[in-house]
Design a protein that fits this description.
Number of helices: 5
Structural class: mainly alpha
Mean pLDDT: 85
Helix content: 55-70%
Order of helices and strands: HHHHH
Shape: elongated
Largest sheet: none
């Protein structure tokens, strides 16, 4: 009896014999940072289908903000890792001469 109550409380068993268990979880919507990460990786891998998919998850403005934030965080992380300034790292990544 206690096992049945535990299962009922966990939602793994229907509440009546005629009732079917229905999953109540909806798919979680994608946030702008997730969209930006998928978008940038897809661009780097030249995967146009994935680029289009990620671009559809959020508005163009939100995607732009997310990509910008990802770029800033990546440059800062690389600068710290290489003990260089973010400016030097950004210029190197873009293939620009040192300023």
């Amino acid at each position: 009896m206690f096992d049945r109550i535990r299962k009922l409380l966990r939602g793994s068993e229907p509440t009546t014999r005629t009732e079917k268990a229905v999953p109540t979880e909806k798919p979680r919507p994608h946030n702008l940072f997730e969209a930006a990460a998928v978008y940038v990786v897809a661009c780097a891998e030249d995967d146009q289908d994935r680029v289009d998919e990620a671009a559809a998850w959020v508005s163009p403005e939100a995607l732009s903000f997310g990509v910008n934030e990802l770029a800033c965080r990546a440059v800062i992380a690389l600068a710290r890792e290489h003990d260089e300034s973010p400016r030097d790292v950004a210029r190197t990544l873009l293939g620009l001469p040192a300023a």
